[in-house]
Amino acid sequence: MPRPTCSRCQRPLGHCLCALIPDLDSRTRVLILQHPSEVGHALNTARLAALGLRNAELRVGEVFDDLPQLLAQPGYRTCLLFPGDEAAALTAYAADEQPLLLVVPDGTWRKARKLLHLNPSLAALPRVSLSVAAPSRYRLRKVPEEGALSTIEAIATALDTLEAPRCFDALLKPFDALIEGQIAAMGEEVFIRNHQR
């Protein structure tokens, strides 16, 4: 029989993170497009980000038929948070009068690229990337490349950049608790052996 889970954070009731999820307002609107393969992931950080931000929306799918309407938010300038040679540094947008609608694909790099391929209006958006970010707090897996962050870390870093001097560290509290919980469940010895190389 499956363990009872919290309907909000979707964690097992004994490990509910809702008390740690903040209720943050932001000038920036965040639209997270999550690949379906991420939904059941134990560390579903996109869901935690969407729950912690009032001005955020999480959509799950591969093809988003209503994407043109989602992207056409009056009063917002729309950008895709996705690194690449053609991506502008997000710092260039920090002084903008017009707030951003920041579109964030959530999935492995391969799945995120697939979302762009299947949704041409997404791929056509101007791209932005983070400047040098702090190392990932995601200590449970090796980062594929220097500067790689989980979705919630990327969103918090982007908001810190766009809305400085405001700080969005509170968004990472449930994420940090999730990581600590996973490490505790596997045991310190196993964690050190498998993840501290």
TrEMBL record:
<dbReference type="InterPro" id="IPR005636">
    <property type="entry name" value="DTW"/>
</dbReference>
<protein>
    <recommendedName>
        <fullName>tRNA-uridine aminocarboxypropyltransferase</fullName>
        <ecNumber>2.5.1.25</ecNumber>
    </recommendedName>
</protein>
<dbReference type="GO" id="GO:0008033">
    <property type="term" value="P:tRNA processing"/>
</dbReference>
<keyword id="KW-0808">Transferase</keyword>
<keyword id="KW-0819">tRNA processing</keyword>
<dbReference type="Pfam" id="PF03942">
    <property type="entry name" value="DTW"/>
</dbReference>
<dbReference type="InterPro" id="IPR039262">
    <property type="entry name" value="DTWD2/TAPT"/>
</dbReference>
<feature type="domain" description="DTW">
    <location>
        <begin position="2"/>
        <end position="187"/>
    </location>
</feature>
<dbReference type="GO" id="GO:0016432">
    <property type="term" value="F:tRNA-uridine aminocarboxypropyltransferase activity"/>
</dbReference>
<keyword id="KW-0949">S-adenosyl-L-methionine</keyword>
<comment type="similarity">
    <text>Belongs to the TDD superfamily. DTWD2 family.</text>
</comment>
